[in-house]
TrEMBL record, chain A:
Positions of the MPN domain: 2-129
Name of the protein this chain belongs to: M67 family peptidase
Alphabetized UniProt keyword annotations: Hydrolase, Metal-binding, Metalloprotease, Protease, Zinc
CDD domains the record matches: MPN_like (cd08070)
Gene3D superfamilies referenced in this protein's UniProt entry, alphabetically: Cytidine Deaminase, domain 2
Annotated organism of origin: Nocardioides iriomotensis
Species classification: Bacteria, Bacillati, Actinomycetota, Actinomycetes, Propionibacteriales
Automatic annotation (TrEMBL), chain B:
Name listed for the protein in its UniProt record: MoaD/ThiS family protein
Source organism phylogeny: Bacteria, Bacillati, Actinomycetota, Actinomycetes, Propionibacteriales
InterPro entries, A to Z: Beta-grasp_dom_sf (IPR012675), Mopterin_synth/thiamin_S_b (IPR016155), Sulfur_Carrier/Prot_Modifier (IPR052045), ThiS/MoaD-like (IPR003749)
Domain of life: Bacteria
Gene3D superfamilies with a match to the protein in the record: 3.10.20.30
């Protein structure tokens, strides 16, 4: 199960809508071993493509060094599909290299850049095997 | 002295869980061969055969002192004692 704050969920959706028709991508980092996504980090899709995404190699290094300093890991790795459903493609499965991460897929095929609901789904991808999991969006904490 | 190599989570099965290991070599290619002797199997995850020659795998990034080796000569990139090498799988998909 992926438990994610409403605010972070909405930030991922907003990023996907903004970059449509290209794929958007990023991570949500969290304390190592906590399984809690806390720090939203949108990344540039260096491929600028509607069918492919890749973090820029220097941004990737900076991201991992930053997480290392903060004792974080990528709890969520997200990207969007802009013309197909929010399910990992064969390429996604072949290139999934973070066995502890929740792979979040957002599909913007229905409303593109506009307001409207999107598919928001989460998966584990380990050794080429995909397992969908429940997504629980937590309401912001009341103070 | 040696070269420190930072290992990503996915490859730590080859390093007994270690986040960083040390190696030796004058070039990245030699360094990877040295890693292979201590951590058998790791080379195949970093390097593939391209037209009869070793080449870095397309979706593996290697940095020597923060420089992506794709821009500094690939496997021929020189390494020196005290250098830091970071291996990171690409975050990519379709």
């Amino acid at each position: 199960m992926l438990r994610i704050d409403q605010e972070i969920h909405d930030a991922i959706v907003a990023h996907a809508k903004k970059d449509h028709p290209d794929e958007a991508c990023g991570v949500v980092a969290g304390p190592e071993g906590s399984d809690t996504p806390t720090r939203f980090v949108p990344m540039v899709n260096a491929a600028s493509s509607p069918t492919f995404y890749e973090f820029d190699s220097h941004d990737l290094l900076a991201l991992y060094k930053d997480m290392d300093v903060r004792d974080e890991e990528p709890v969520v790795v997200y990207h969007s599909h802009t013309a197909t459903e929010a399910y990992p493609s064969r390429t996604d499965i072949g290139l999934a290299m973070e066995p502890q991460a929740h792979y979040v897929l957002v599909s913007t095929r229905e409303h593109g850049n506009n307001e409207g609901p999107v598919e928001f789904r989460s998966y584990r991808i380990v050794d080429g095997e995909v397992t969908e999991e429940e997504v629980v969006v937590a309401a912001p904490e009341k103070s | 002295m040696a070269v420190e190599v930072r290992i990503p989570t996915i490859l730590r099965t080859y390093t007994g869980g270690e986040k960083a290991v040390s190696g030796a070599g004058a070039t990245l290619s030699e360094l990877i061969d040295d890693l292979e002797t201590n951590h058998p199997g790791i080379k195949d995850r970093l390097v593939e055969d391209k037209d009869g020659q070793d080449d870095l795998r397309r979706f593996v990034n290697v940095y020597v002192n923060d420089e992506d080796v794709r821009f500094t000569g690939g496997l021929d990139t020189s390494v020196d004692d005290g250098d830091q090498v970071v291996v990171l799988p690409a975050v990519a998909g379709g």
